[in-house]
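[[Sequence with tokens]]
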Amino acid sequence: MANERLARLRARMEQNGINLYYVPSSDFHDSEYVEDYFCCRAFLSGFTGSAGTMVVTKDFAGMWTDGRYFVQAKKQLAGQDTELMRMGDEGVPTVEAFIEAHIPEHGVLGMDGRVVNSQIGLAFKKLLEKKQAALVMDRDLAGEVWEGRPPLPSPDVWVLEEKYAGETAGSKIGRLRSAMKEKKATAHILSGLDDIAWLLNIRKHSEDGNLLPMAHVIATEDSLRLFIDSSRITENVRVYFAENGVSLADYGEIYEAVASLRNETVLLEPAKVNLRLYESIHGSCKKVEAMNPTSLMKAVKNPVEMENMRRAHRKDGIALTKFIYWMKTRSKDCALTETEAAEKLEGFRKAQEGYLGPSFATISAYGANAAMCHYHATKEEQSEIGDRGFYLVDSGGQYYEGTTDVTRTIVMGGPLSDEERFHFTLVLMGMLRLSDARFLYGCRGINLDYLARGPLWKHGLDFNHGTGHGVGYLSNVHERPNGIRWKIVPERQDSCILEEGMVTSDEPGLYMEGSHGIRTENMLLCRKAEKNGYGQFMQFETLTYAPIDMEAVDFSIMEPSDIRLLNVYHKKVYELLAPGLTQEEQEWLKEATREREERI
């Protein structure tokens, strides 16, 4: 089926004189998780991972994706005409290098410029100049061949109350305008959905947990226009916007509005404004290119958000613990598939007050499937969960009190191999050591990553993804500019100084293709520690509480300090979660979190 779609795309390319066609995974806002309308790359290739870029020529189609998706992409592209291009592997060209090598003199590169951010698009234009080639960015060829394409949704917008947000929209808009003045900007184009939702304290109703309404903003010194499909916006929300000086315009009018700007100093972030918008800016305007000021503002959670997130994680911990108990004691009474297990976990979350939906699609993976670290089971293609080995579940929830993301690897039965227990324990040691970090202010995630990877690197092992990502508040589960990884990846923009109030994941893992996958993930809140003559020290406060499966732990390879950290963690797990459990679940949790002896 995917090959037939690819053939139709190539026919359109030939009709339009296009030599190469570029298909990213993004939407009009460069979002990570997109509406079904934007899944052109998956439609054309059959690869459903959330990250990937497709380039199509007359006789070649390549899918570039990173290490998180190698195993999944290899499986889904089997038998297709699209070839897996393993990003970062030796001998694999970058997308840019491939385009430069394969675009003919005076050739044409095609794309839908609305789904390509201007940073990428401008780099392509510069690259094409070398061969006097052209960039055509007004043809959505993938959409043209997609019969039955899902429609763009109309957002049903609601207002996040100050008791959850901790700051009014008016205050945030004022802070944004102050930042604009510092940049000497008279206008600001804002297209990041998480930025807009945070700025205006708005979200949308959604069954899949994607709570960010599609919208653009143009802010000036005395006006703020919100470009949005307002067909489902209630009168109460309209009044709210008016009270905060926000005027509404149709979603599609953003291009004309940007083109009408004259003699303005326009603040924008090229990586977060699509190429069509960028190219619409009139030549009389001066561009100031910088990260959206709201990105750093929203990454630093205020005291109300911090306290709310503690509450959200306690609720989530109760739901996850109930699920782990059920998996360990009840699931063996009947056959259970990966999707059925995910649905059971979702049921426990739905029972928690204030739950709004998943923060991302649950990764529910048994056995070798967990070696695909971003594996997604479907009703059509999944495994039955057996009575031995590991089951990995990576999931999260959206609550009025915040966003959660947690991974646990659960023993479904034994005996485990020595290798499995060894791997599980190394991952656990890394997670615990990172959570216990104390560091001077000014450190970035790159300074701390070794704490998590050290136990693995010591044995010549590693995992091919970042150690930690920022987490939003009732927003994106992956949020810049904070993160933890061992090397800087410029396009991820996640290497900022760690500030008090930032929430970052702590998720080392290990993936053995064809055998097993292990990941243990908690959320960490950055806090100030003592200040002395050496400077301001920082530390992490753990937000996530749920038991670690000690059946998989090889205590003989742990340092006494590692065991102490696990004991302290488990003690708090029981104290926080036991009141929300049944008597039977409490008794199980007490045993599951029992203190272990620290050896010397």
